[in-house]
Amino acid sequence: MRSPKDFFAPLALGAPEPVRQIPAPPSRMIHFFDPSNEKMATKVPELAKRVDVLLGNLEDAVKADRKEAARNGLVRIAKETDFGSTQLWTRINSLDSPWVLDDLITLVTEIGDRLDVIMVPKVEGAQDIHYIDRLLAQLEARAGLTRPLQVHAILETASGVANVEEIAGAGPRMQGISLGPADLAASRGMKTTRVGGGHPGYLVRTDPVGEDLHSGRTTYQQDLGHYTVARMVDACVLNGILPYYGPFGDIRDVVACEDQFRNAFLLGCVGAWSLHPVQIDIAKKVFSPAPEDVAWARKVIDAMGDGTGAVMIDGKMQDDASVKQCRVVTELAARDPELAEAYDAAMKEARA
């Protein structure tokens, strides 16, 4: 077991110092693109103006014979594109694949100064993060990087869920965790082929009225991932890292996508994956607090003064717990310069 004193020491001679607090710019959507797809690659400069995070995907959805093209494509795109304030991430191939070592060596040494976060699929336990942590330190030292790369784990196996707390606290590189609902469903032997969202067969039903057990009973579709998302959020909050919902696979169903993203937002997630441009604005809308919510939160904080005691505002009791909830909303709003004007206008209206 490592001493806590050594936790923030570089793991290789010449590697940069680990960060003590992870950066937390807006990351409402992690937008995936295939760097081996030339048509998609030409859209990257415009996409960079619309999203918080652009992720060059090297793993699933990239065919085996296109892995090298995707890796080289990401290197070229990273060198040629001005991303502005948009973060550049990548999802490497899984640790049991024949491509992952080349992914890391190439990306860190070629574009390590352009990358922000490396997403690692199918993380089973802290040992996977420890392996990546040491290897990244060696490669950062070789490349002469002055800023350490962050690591993001995907929760998509039963073992990963069982070990999610130790994964979240496995090292100072840990930036966050995303739910991977499809691979997780397969790992658990769940009987669904959906990628995210609820399932019509997983339901609750109202009680019968009278003797007829069939008619007049309403059913409500339930979310198969609710328990896992909640546990993931707790593990992330415990360790000071960020929780994200993963993909919603039905691109056409924008209504259900918005519902799923909002459920994740309310449970504590800071963002979700977007697989198609139509999902970008959904994520931006859902994972940004509504202006009226920000105005209310600021009103409560102002009224509470030093944050102790209790006050009545518009017939509702507010106390120290209310202030803590309201600060979550206002701190999120403060990180979103695009919406600052709308937030300020709502606050002025609330004070009028």
Question: In summary, what is this structure?
Answer:
This protein has 352 residues and is α/β, with parallel strands linked by helices.
Q: Averaging pLDDT over every residue, what do you get?
A: 90
Arrangement of strands in the largest sheet: 9-6-5-4-3-2-1-10
User: Quick one: how many beta strands?
Assistant: 12
The major beta sheet can be summarized as: 8 strands, parallel
Looking at the structure, what is the overall shape? globular
Low-confidence stretches: none
Strand content: 15-25%
Question: What distance separates the N and C termini?
Answer: 58 Å
Classify the helix fraction into a percent range: 40-55%
Structural class: alpha/beta
> What's the total helix number?
14
The H/E string reads: EHHEHEHEHEHHEHEEHEHEHHEEHH
Radius of gyration: 22 Å
Defining traits:
eight-stranded parallel β-sheet, 14 helices, globular, two-stranded antiparallel sheet, 352 residues, alpha/beta, 42% helix
SSE map:
Blueprint: E1 29-33, H1 38-41, H2 44-47, E2 53-57, H3 67-80, E3 87-91, H4 100-111, E4 117-120, H5 126-143, E5 150-155, H6 158-162, H7 164-168, E6 174-179, H8 181-188, E7 198-205, E8 219-223, H9 226-238, E9 242-244, H10 254-267, E10 272-274, H11 278-286, H12 291-304, E11 310-313, E12 316-319, H13 320-334, H14 340-351
Parallel strand pairs: 1-2, 1-10, 2-3, 3-4, 4-5, 5-6, 6-9
Antiparallel strand pairs: 7-8, 11-12
Helix pairs in contact: 3-4, 4-5, 10-11, 12-13, 12-14
